[in-house]
Amino acid sequence: MASRAFAYRVDDPKEDIHFLVGHSFDKPLASRGAGTLDLADSDDALSFTATITPEMQEVSYVKDILAGIAAGLTVGISPGFRLPPKRAVPEPERIEDEGSDPENGEHNAIIRTVLQALLYEMSVVTRPAYPEAQVEARNWSQPPQARVFLPKRQLIARYR
Questions:
Q1: CA separation for the pair 43, 45 (Å, rounded)
Q2: Cα–Cα distance list, 9 to 41, 49, 73, 79, 92 (Å)
Q3: pTM of this prediction?
Q4: CA distance 5 to 55
Q5: Residue 129 parent element (H or E)
Q6: What is the mean pLDDT of each run of 10 residues along the chain (160 residues)?
Q7: Which residues fall within 8 angstroms of residue 78, CB to CB, at 6 or more apart?
Q8: Is residue 132 within a helix (H) or strand (E), and if so which, with residue range?
């Protein structure tokens, strides 16, 4: 991800973005529209704080996901996004061919950098696309909050 790739939707407070379990819109944890999800975008990272309300803490799948996080079994964060249409953003991504130079460890890898994306949700997952995107369980006073950081080109998450 390029720096501030999610800015279009993140910078508009009217755009509802959700925090979900496993990319399932039928398993919400928090949302901007409900006032339980705050996002902050900077050149270094996209971060968010999700408040898990006391009512949601009573829901079975929420108890399950919080237990999975605490046990270290469900530790990933994955953004749900799509690229904007080319008519709106002529170059939403950059694709580069690393070339082939086996002696120097280059084996014709294709490198994709997302320059602009429309973020719809962030999800807690078992296996994130970016292994660096991790959730860390902490003890809280109620309500628990999740804090996640998405730096450029990689995803790193902390659950506090």
A1: 6
A2: 10, 16, 31, 13, 14
A3: 0.78
A4: 33
A5: none
A6: 90 95 96 92 81 90 89 87 92 87 81 91 87 58 50 33
A7: 23, 122, 123, 125, 128, 129, 130, 133, 155
A8: none
